[in-house]
Amino acid sequence: MELSVIILVISFVILLALSVPIAISIGIATSLTMLFTISSGPAVTTVAQRMVSGIDSFALLAIPFFILSGQLMGRGGIARRLIDFAKVLVGMFPGGLAFVNILACMFFGAISGSAVAATSAIGGFMIPIMNKEGYDKNFNTAVTVTASTTGLLIPPSNVLIVYSLASGGVSIAALFIAGYLPGILMGLGLMTVAGIISIVKKYPVGSRESMWESLKKFLSAIPSLLLIVIVIGGIIAGIFTATEASAIAVLYSFILSVFIYKEVKVGEIPQILLKSVETTAIVMLLIGTSTAMSWILSYENIPQNISAALIGLTNSKIIILLIINVLLLIVGTFMDMTPAILIFTPIFLPVVMQLGITPLHFGIIMVMNLCIGLCTPPVGSVLFVGCGIGHTTIGKITRILLPFFAVMIIVLMLVTFIPQITLFLPEFFGY
Questions:
Q1: Distances in Å between the alpha carbon of 416 and those of 51, 299, 323, 362, 412?
Q2: Would you list the DSSP string of 75-110?
Q3: I need a labelling partner for 9 at 20 to 30 A (CA). Which of 76, 257, 272, 279 fits?
Q4: What's the pLDDT at 412?
Q5: In the chain, what percentage of residues exceed pLDDT 90?
């Protein structure tokens, strides 16, 4: 077992250091481990078999559909309408534009299912506006980067579908419903920090919209917000499954973007389909190679050994959960969410289940941890996109990010140690 772990870890770290794409790094590291520890003959064949079996799942059909839906919504003028609606709700408060940014990121992230898309779409609109109004551009970028991750908790969320696969079949519908309160709580925490900083820095207060303008912006945003209602409402009502809901989301997004808002031209559809296929291919390759790595870890009894070591380390549930949270926070700083979920769920889930934590609750804890990782160097994809849009550098916004990180970790601790924040809605709806 020691040899397999050494080969796996060293080869994986070296490949990442050489800037090899993470999916390729995982596949090569897994193949090398099998070659040296199992036998040279069936090693490559076994990796291929595990990759195929890893993506051979009906539930995973939802991912390409939600990706396509997000692409359509992202180009369909949704961001501008959600920003206008957010201004009606919170734009008149001190630091109102920061609140608008956070709320719009929550809405758009939930609709698109992508933190990077939310950063690009909302940040592209809001950061220049906030700069013009006198807000510090590093503050504006920090707000956008951290707020964009909330959409991965508020459904529909592709990473929650991936966790369902990794955990052995936790209900996707239950995961979707469970993400609402933690996601909203995270957004409120970020608003609190942004509000305090805005008051201290004396950022401008937005003007109150007239009743007529508010009504117009609300009505304009309703069709966009209805996507969440249709998808989640249909799942809760038992009208369709999460996978079927993803297809409904594509149809609704197509009608909304092409025929109602008319901001996506028919000639743009092939380009949107191609982009969706590219994104789907990347995600599926990550899932396939990560599944193969998870299999070799299980074959070598590594999850069982780690579980036994943690349980043997202390009898304190609080300490073990703190250790797991710290480890996941560290993992999130250098690994993308999809492979992290697929690799570390089989390792940590048996541990937390022995502590009485349900797979549903742990799924939200894990995704929350990895959301924070998206905002942190060295591999924070959302952080890099945000800095590009905000025309700033990681070094300049790191200090401003610290209070936002602090509140995100506080919310993470609340969700970890108060299970009902996660479990209340699923239990209310009978999951």
A1: 32, 30, 12, 8, 6
A2: HTTHHHHHHHHHHHHHTTSBTHHHHHHHHHHHHHHH
A3: 279
A4: 96
A5: 24
Cα 410 from Cα 32, distance rounded (Å): 40
Q: How many whole angstroms separate alpha carbon 139 and alpha carbon 130?
A: 10
Asked if 332 and 369 touch (Cβ cutoff 8 Å), the reply is yes
Q: Kindly compute the dihedral angle of the four CA atoms of residues 425, 166, 28, 383, in this order, to the nearest 10 degrees.
A: 0
Closest to 76 (Cα-Cα) out of 240, 230, 252: 252
Q: Which residues of 275-284 are buried (b: 16+ CB within 10 A; e: fewer)?
A: ebeebbebbb
Q: Give the pLDDT confidence score for residue 27 in this predicted structure.
A: 86
**Ramachandran sector of residue 391 (left: φ over 0; alpha: ψ -120 to 50; beta: rest):** left
Rounded Cα gap, residues 185 and 408, in angstroms: 9
Cα separation values, 113 from 64, 120, 313, Å = 11, 13, 38
Burial of 165 (0-12, 13-18, 19+ CB in 10 A): buried
- The closest of 30, 59, 84 to 286, measured between CA atoms, is 30
- Stated pTM of the model: 0.83
Which helix H or strand E contains 404, and what residues bound it? helix 394-417
Q: Is the peptide bond before 182 cis (omega within 30 degrees of 0)?
A: no
Say how far residue 52 (Cα) sits from the centre of its chain. 24
Rg of the chain's alpha carbons, rounded to an integer? 22
Partnered with residue 205 across adjacent β-strands are 94
| CA 71 – CA 67 distance, rounded (Å) | 6
User: Quick one: what percent of the chain has pLDDT higher than 70?
Assistant: 96
In which band, very low, low, confident or very high, does the pLDDT at 96 lie, cut at 50, 70 and 90? confident
8 A C-beta contact, residue 374 and residue 332: yes
pLDDT of residue 383: 85
**Can you spell out the DSSP letters for 278-315?**
HHHHHHHHHHHHHHHHHHHHHHTTHHHHHHHHHHHH-S
Question: What is the pLDDT at residue 404?
Answer: 95
Cβ distance 152 to 386 under 8 Å? no
